[in-house]
Specification:
The protein is α/β, with parallel strands linked by helices and about 270 residues long. About 35% of the residues lie in helices and about 20% in strands. It has two domains: about 130 residues, Rossmann fold, CATH 3.40.50; about 100 residues, HAD superfamily/HAD-like (Rossmann fold).
């Protein structure tokens, strides 16, 4: 199959993409919207298995653990081993394990984040934590934001699991971590450090998990501001799929471009 990047350019053959040894894929807007599997995903995963291509689902979402993501895809009809998932929650836990001295944090987020932090020895602390860590959550409220502001003003360092402002769902676009952490940044005058894509820390871990060199793999995502730039800066060929947040018009807003633009991951399959 051939794909046109935009009108007026030569169509681009996907043969080089098919020859990649491995793939790193985002999940929200690429594999599913909420609890709805996107078209062509099963065919794409079947092709990866049939061609024995190592792959990793590298998601900026911090809500779920790899096991929960495995079970979610199982409910959607995909049988994928837990080892194929890596989340911004795990990346954040890895970062704090290396950087933290007091091993404590005040956390606004779901179980996927808090459990990842517990696993590396970070305890929950709402009095004098070393870090305030924010991820996506359905329990976003004024009290938590106020507590976070007070702790950051008292000296806690502000960490975001990812910089995504929005994410796709079954019924539209929803606020994500970048939007949720913004009030804390504005109220304190402190800028958060984001661990998820496009941070190269997360991308390097993903490439290492594949067991490949960067030039041997491709990054597939639905966001120009995280997925595509993360792939470019890490040396991977990039595939933007239009099944999530970005559109063809979005591409023109950035000084860089993806190598391939496709409607969805099903278009990757020969």
């Amino acid at each position: 199959m051939k794909e046109r990047i935009n009108e007026g350019e030569n169509s681009m053959d996907l043969k080089e993409l098919h020859e990649k040894k491995g793939f790193i894929c985002d999940m929200d807007g690429v594999i599913y919207h909420g609890n709805r599997l996107l078209p062509g995903v099963k065919e794409f995963v079947d092709w990866l298995y049939a061609e024995k291509k190592p792959f990793l689902f590298l998601t900026n979402s911090s809500e779920r653990s790899p096991r929960e993501l495995q079970q979610k895809l199982g409910r959607l009809g995909l049988d994928i081993d837990e080892s194929h998932f890596y989340t911004s929650a795990l990346a954040t836990a890895k970062f704090l394990k290396m950087q933290s001295r007091k091993k404590s944090a005040f956390v606004i987020g779901e179980a996927g984040l808090t459990n990842a932090l517990y696993e590396v020895g970070i305890t929950m602390n709402d009095v004098d934590p070393e870090y305030v860590v924010v991820g996506e959550t359905h329990n976003y409220n004024y009290d938590n934001i106020s507590k976070a502001v007070q702790l950051v003003l008292a000296g806690a360092k502000l960490i975001g699991t990812n910089p995504d402002l929005t994410g796709p769902g079954e019924t539209g676009i929803f606020p994500a971590c970048g939007a949720m952490i913004s009030p804390i940044e504005v109220a304190t005058g402190k800028r958060a450090y984001f661990v998820g894509k496009p941070n190269p820390l997360m991308m390097r871990t993903g490439i290492k998990m594949l067991g490949l060199h960067a030039q041997e793999a491709a990054m597939v995502g639905d966001r120009m501001d995280t997925d595509v730039v993360a792939g470019l800066e890490s040396g991977l060929d990039t595939v933007l799929v239009l099944s999530g947040v970005s559109t063809r018009a979005t591409i023109e807003e950035y000084p860089y471009r993806p190598k391939y633009v496709l409607d969805g991951v099903g278009n990757i399959v020969p």
